[in-house]
Amino acid sequence: QVQLVESGGGLVQAGGSLRLSCATSGRPFIAVGWFRQAPGKEREFVAAINWSGDSSSYADSVSGRFTISRDNAKNTVYLQMNSLKPEDTAAYYCAANRRGGVVAGSQYEYPYWGQGTQVTVSS
Q: Are 18 and 10 in contact (CB under 8 A)?
């Protein structure tokens, strides 16, 4: 089993920044992905990173603005979000993939999920 707890969400103005954290426990060598879901929309992939941190992937909509990273000594994965836009408003979830070397964009690759943290970007 893997447990994940997100934090760092909040309200920010367009153009601002936030850093989300995902604290993990229960199983080492996991890959982690960030997903988001806006009201009335399907959950979508944001970014993912492998267990060693040397491979990552981003959705086109956030590439160049968001950066995913991890500190395995702290069992924490981060999502640094810069140049935020109103369309980034959503509940953000981190999820764990037991196949630690795989950087996957499909939510179906991730059996473990956190409870989510809300990000609201005002215009």
A: yes
